[in-house]
Write a structure and sequence with these properties.
Layout: H1 9-24, H2 30-49, H3 55-67, H4 74-91, H5 97-107, H6 112-128
Helix pairs in contact: 1-2, 3-4, 4-5, 4-6, 5-6
Length: 130
Amino acid sequence: MSAANGYSHDNVINKLIKLNERIAVDPFNDVQQKDLIWCQRLLTDVKDSGLIPSKEEFIMANLMWKKYGFLPTDRKSTEENMWKLIDSMLTQENPSKIGAIKMYRRFIDSTLREAKEMVDAREIKITRGW
């Protein structure tokens, strides 16, 4: 994406730096540590390699921004956005169930089994149009 299309490499780097700082502010738990590592890897890829984040990476970064926000009302919105992303992962041309499970585990501190069961249930819900 070029600057003419609204992409600014420096702007993305600055926002990822702010996201990194936002995640690192609070005491760590396992999920937060994984989020911080993900953010730092993405920042390194964008900053050092000049890579452009994928659509999913932009969505994930936005979800993390809301997840580590300072407003208590952000949690419900973040969870709704997480489900939207999971739904899109399950309904895209090449569904990514494993990606959806990983996404769930990143946002909801759960076991692999719990995440798989939740994503399976969501997949059934989508299939049946509930």
